[in-house]
Amino acid sequence: MAFLKLPPAQRAVFVQRMRVIDGRPSIDDLDAQVRVKLRAALPDGHADSFMRQLWAWWYEQTVEMLQNRHTSVSVTRLMQRISRIRDDYTSDRLPTTVDREGGNVPTRRHRN
Questions:
Q1: Do the Cβ atoms of 43 and 50 come closer than 8 Å?
Q2: Which of 1, 67, 76, 78 is buried most deeply by CB count within 10 Å?
């Protein structure tokens, strides 16, 4: 309803800035599509855990954008996060998970 409260000129600008991208994956297919794009980065035998960590980080980023803490996530920043998560899955360093709020959530890492 906030849109309808805008003056006509601001509504026009708002609509002109919209982009409709047809043929994109649905929200239900998003995880599978991201996995395809990241297949080279996914650690063998730990893809699900890796993706949970990545989605948790992405959720934090979206919340921070909604709170106006930053306006976007750069490709460089995303790639750095993917690398950090991937580095946690080397043979001498694996994430430690604990049950928190009903789900296994990686909370800290340790070296063997």
A1: yes
A2: 78
Whole-angstrom Cα distance, residue 86 to residue 47? 10
Q: Where are the domains of the chain?
A: 30-111
- State which amino acid sits at residue 14: F
- What pLDDT does 77 receive? 96
Per DSSP, 90 falls in state B
Quick check: helix, strand or coil at residue 94?
Answer: strand
Note the pLDDT tens digit of each residue in 45-86.
999 999 999 999 999 999 999 998 988 999 999 999 999 999
Q: Which helix (H) or strand (E) holds 51?
A: helix 47-66
Q: Which helix (H) or strand (E) holds 98?
A: strand 93-100
Q: Which tokens belong to 24?
A: 């994109």
And the tokens for 44? 């063998």
